[in-house]
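Field notebook, page 316. I keep forgetting to write these up properly, so this time I am using the form the group agreed on. The chain and the ligand, nicotinamide-adenine-dinucleotide, are recorded exactly as supplied. Prediction of the bound pose follows.
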Amino acid sequence: MQYLVTGGAGFIGSHIVDALLAKGHSVRAIDNLSTGLEPNLKAALKNPKFEFFKKDLYSEGEACIPHFKGVDVVIHMAANADVRFGTDHPRRDLEQNTIVTWQILEAMRLNGVKQIAFASTGSIYGEPEVFPTPENAPFPTQTSLYGASKLAAEGMISAYCHGFEMRSCIYRFVSCLGPRYSHGHVIDFVRQLKKHPEYLDVLGDGNQRKSYMHVMDCVNGVLLGLERATERVNVFNLGVDGSCTVRESIGWICETLGVKPELRFTGGKRGWIGDSPMIHLDVKKIEGLGHRPEHGILASVVDTVKFLIANEWMLE
Ligand SMILES: NC(=O)c1ccc[n+]([C@@H]2O[C@H](COP(=O)([O-])OP(=O)(O)OC[C@H]3O[C@@H](n4cnc5c(N)ncnc54)[C@H](O)[C@@H]3O)[C@@H](O)[C@H]2O)c1
């Protein structure tokens, strides 16, 4: 099969590229390398079944259209993936997440591509009242521009599927951890602790509860859903059945680094505007297809810290 992975040089996208190549598929990747890294594609670039196009899916949308020719499945990972700072750049999530998704759907329509997998997010649930939160939770109130832009993209995908006989798998990820991890609280904390092991500044009161999944479990879930989902539009929460507090994850990070910092909390229930104080998704639906995460939250945090210690250049 011919796959096209947008954001293929990114943290999750590059693992998807590697997994598809390992299964013998042909893979194209489009990435503007804004947050993606070429070293993530080191192995893929040696594979004759891999093609890489350094292009911007927003500003060079038209120029990207020919790359969709002959593609069986698009795996759309490109985005502004950071939920923070949305209010500092009010256009960015709309452009990079919603409009880029629409441009990709158009490129698919023009080239007769019929299947798409999309990286959505647990952030679309805003501050839900039901835990674990199922896919059909009461229609969520949006609290971040990132979540709103992803939910709008989900709607666009659904409308294209119904309008142009496409099929989709929409995955609402919890936060991912593991090798090639490049953004989020674990790297922020490790970066700080390398600079000043005697103290750690923490956003919020540290009692926020979050859920984390290992990137390999994420990749397996994405590919499994594509293989087994049967509806025209399939929406899946993708994560592990559990959560931990920010304080617990700090304990694991500090233990792995061998440091005992003073914790300095900024206070308040949320780390930033749009931060969700509690994320715990109901993952029974994807588990019903056979998905079984192999890594627990603690193992994923420790694996990530070890990766960052071994790749200190990521902290610069
Ligand atoms: N990492 C997580 O914890 C997490 C959680 C929920 C959802 N997601 C979603 O999963 C996807 C992948 O996230 P990630 O963590 O790998 O992030 P990432 O930043 O590592 O990957 C995104 C990739 O897209 C590329 N990109 C961004 N804008 C582009 C554009 N206009 N044109 C071409 N390429 C562009 C970047 O260079 C990068 O390689 C994103 O859609 C993100 O919103 C991630």
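OBSERVATIONS:
- The first helix runs from residue 11 to 22.
- Residues 7, 9-13, 30-36, 56-58, 77-79, 81, 96, 100, 119, 121, 173, 175-176, 182 surround nicotinamide-adenine-dinucleotide (CB under 6 Å).
FOLLOW-UP: compare against the apo run.
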